[in-house]
Amino acid sequence: VQLVESGGGLVQPGGSLRLSCTPSGIAFEGYAIAWFRQAPGKEREAVSCISRLRSPTYYVDYADSVKGRFTISRDNAENTAYLQMNSLKPDDTAVYYCNARRLNEYWGQGTQVTVSS
User: Fold this and answer.
1) Which of 105, 60, 106, 108 is nearest to 84 (CA)?
2) Is the peptide bond before 23 cis (omega within 30 degrees of 0)?
3) Rounded distance, CA 33 to CA 83, Å?
4) What's the Rg (C-alpha) of the chain?
5) N or C: fewer beta carbons within 10 Å in the chain?
6) pLDDT of the residue at 54
7) Would you say 88 and 14 are in contact if contact means Cβ atoms under 8 Å apart?
8) How many CA atoms lie within 13 A of 18 on its CB side?
9) What is the pLDDT of residue 112?
10) ∠ at Cα 98 (43, 105), nearest 5°?
11) What is the C-alpha to C-alpha distance for residues 68 and 79, in angstroms, rounded to an integer?
12) What is the DSSP secondary-structure string of 59-72?
């Protein structure tokens, strides 16, 4: 099983990035997906999550620090989950990790997001 994150990089404050997470080796549609981040010297924290089932829409949740700025989504046909990040702040600087969870749990290797002028 492998989760591959992409889309990180260096962006100025106020800018946007879209992270992608593409798992392989699992049935993507059967897993809830979450994004975590870890800044230097800090513990890993949950950023956002999206349910595996729609009833009729996906359940999504966000950390208070990113509500209104980040949007999580998934495209089961493309086997990819996304995290759209807008109005980025220096405090958003971290390594961002994708997590796939059902009975088992899998992690990606992380992608660096740096918000700096």
Assistant:
1) 60
2) no
3) 11
4) 14
5) C
6) 87
7) yes
8) 9
9) 98
10) 90
11) 25
12) EEEE-TTTTTTEEE
105 falls in which pLDDT band (50, 70, 90)? very high
Burial class (CB in 10 A: 0-12, 13-18, 19+), 77: exposed
**Contact by Cβ (8 Å): 18, 8:** no
The model's pLDDT over 7-51, given as tens digits with 9 standing for 90+, comes to 999 999 999 999 999 999 989 999 999 999 999 999 999 999 999
Distance CA 85, CA 94 (A): 13
* CA pair distance 113, 7, nearest whole angstrom: 9
Q: What is the dihedral of CA 116, 43, 34, 101, to 10 degrees?
A: 150
- Residue position matching structure tokens 């049935």: 27
pLDDT at 32: 97
- Put residue 31 in one of left, alpha, beta given phi > 0 → left and psi -120 to 50 → alpha: beta
Identify the pLDDT of residue 55: 83
Position of tokens 């897993």?
31
